[in-house]
């Protein structure tokens, strides 16, 4: 099953109906690999937002009263639809945001399926009523949810937010990224095929100003869930606060990998480069700062240089490619600016740089880049690049390594590498970050995911991700029937 959006304009999906793109302003979607047009979506307006929110608000009472078993049944049917459409979804993701096809199939789509399965397990295990003291406590859905999702792992983020909200009994209006909206259009068709009632799930395409702002401030929206940049998250918090909406934010990161002196160098190098370079570095939890003991620095850098040669940029539609383009020309220029600034600040280039990739000049390609001698005084040490750029900093003591790891406004993820698990866990406990992987352990979609500090608030994935979309009501003097 393959699906092409080339030459078509996709309209919004509101109240179970597809809107027309005729006569409407559109947002064209271009492949970052070679600039070709791969599709277009209608550019939404505040009027479109009103229609979608009204549909979600009207559908909410009945959906909230639907049994958990029925909601689970429909989400399980959605999982089947996604698995049937895995190849088509992977192809669309490769076209619109440059994810290498093999990675799109296994990670972009595969992780989305895993997300939904874990959320179904959480919903199945949830007890909606329990006794506390002299009260009956009841959990209920928050209401109408505005979900605003990014372009880097679009299907994963939609699945986490929309899946949890719907299983909790909420209705949803989704605004996917205007850079990568086509996978959301395909997913909406899968919701339709799975049999979700009209108005329960709605999609409005558009940018932040025309769709995001009216959605965040809409009086009938009860909760906003957002994944994206720290600056946009701040704006959403401020805008939503006027009506005291619940807001959950999953924002940026500048995550540190702490290499202890007993770590296996080769294994740590492979794991760190995989974290930093996969998805072309466009991963919020990527380990982009490496803290290496001075005694291991030279050998670690030598092996990192050797390992980096495997990460050769290539066309994303080729099965053998592991490093595709960045998601857009704008993102390419942003990453190049970070590389130039790091060089200007005195960081030493081990490999890579800001130059055009030979033979791929027509796309948003950049060489994987490793810097040595990065200090806390440099911009690269603190600012999220969101590209395949790795910063190496040496340290003398574990106390210094922990201080360097925590020297960030962010606190989303981190890693510790050691031959001694107890020693690694001790360092992990000291890191002010929402997740820590030991010896290269990656995302566990059954465990809570989210950040400390300016990486956001709230949690996604599994039980806690499901419970973010619930309110609790205490009925005092009552007992469970």
Low-confidence stretches: none
Number of helices, where a helix is a run of at least 4 consecutive DSSP H or I residues: 15
Rg to the nearest angstrom? 23 Å
Count up the domains. Answer: 2
Q: Report the CATH C-level class of the largest domain.
A: Alpha Beta
How far apart are the first and last residues' alpha carbons, in Å?
49 Å
Given helix and strand content, the structural type is alpha/beta
Largest sheet properties: 7 strands, mixed
Hey, roughly how much beta strand do the residues contain?
15-25%
Q: Mean pLDDT, as a whole number? A: 97
Shape: globular
- CATH architecture classification name of the largest domain: 3-Layer(aba) Sandwich
- Total E-strand runs: 23
Spell out the CATH superfamily of the largest domain.
Aldehyde Dehydrogenase, Chain A, domain 1
**Largest beta sheet: strand ordering:** 15-16-17-14-13-19-20
Fraction of residues in H or I helices? 40-55%
Q: Indicate the CATH topology of the largest domain.
A: Aldehyde Dehydrogenase, Chain A, domain 1
